[in-house]
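My current task is to audit a protein record that another person submitted. Please read both lines and tell me whether the tokens look consistent with the sequence. Do not assume that whoever made the record got everything right. I have pasted the whole thing underneath without changing anything:

===
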Amino acid sequence: MSAKNDMSLPRGLSIVVATVIVVFSILGPLTDYQITASAVGRIVSKKVYSALIPLRKSTSLNHQPYQVQIFSRDPQVIYIEDFLSKEEIAHLLYLSEGRFQRSKVYGGYDESVVDPDLRISETAQIDNNDEVVRRIRNRAAKFQGSRGNRTKVEDLAVQRYHADGFYSYHYDWDPTLTEGNRITTFMVYLVGDCTGGGTNFPYLQKPSDRQWCNVIECDEGENAYQGVTFKPIAGSAVFWENFHTNGSGHQGVFHAGLPVESGVKIGLNIWTWDAAWKRPEGDSEIWI
């Protein structure tokens, strides 16, 4: 995506220009899309940023530093802090603008339907040829290591949940298939300016170490959900393996997007498809 080089600006923007130039000189190169202070997905004008700062390739964006914490070994669940940079988040939000449609749920055998009893949210299919999107997909693939030449990171999709939005309990794989399936999931949080809206795993055991309370709900009182609920913290991600090592589905990764009580939650789904996966002989297609 190329930025315009026309430096002419409408009258009255001189203060804005001066401010942005000062910020740019302090913080270094920026992308031409930024999140506003409200952090609910509204984007600073692309036109203004395009006129001021050409889109530049940034070494820091190509090598986004993140921190990894193993939450569970069985099932394998990993918490990743700063999986995406603020610039990458802003770019994804821009790509998704104007593309949101009501989210569907998979009904099996290639059938997807809108079902408000199971899911209320909006989905945006974004341009997966975009340079930043390709970079994120590559990062997700490298994080998992070599899995054979029949695995691929699927096209990315952005999910948006307003107040009362939710996604009921489900697995991310297709239980009707015998060959090929989603073997891993990244749930990446882009915007978490909300109450509620956590990702709940009812079969995971909550750790006794209170340090985890920075990223999971610990003090929910009488209204606590069973298991573990990860907070929607912008830039962070939760990664998990969907299957046991023998190829059977893991009950421990049954999960839900809890209702958003107020505000907005925006997330990014990153799934890995393995065409070589086969259902183990004698394994039931229902794993709940």
Observations:
- Residues 14-27 form the longest helix (14 residues).
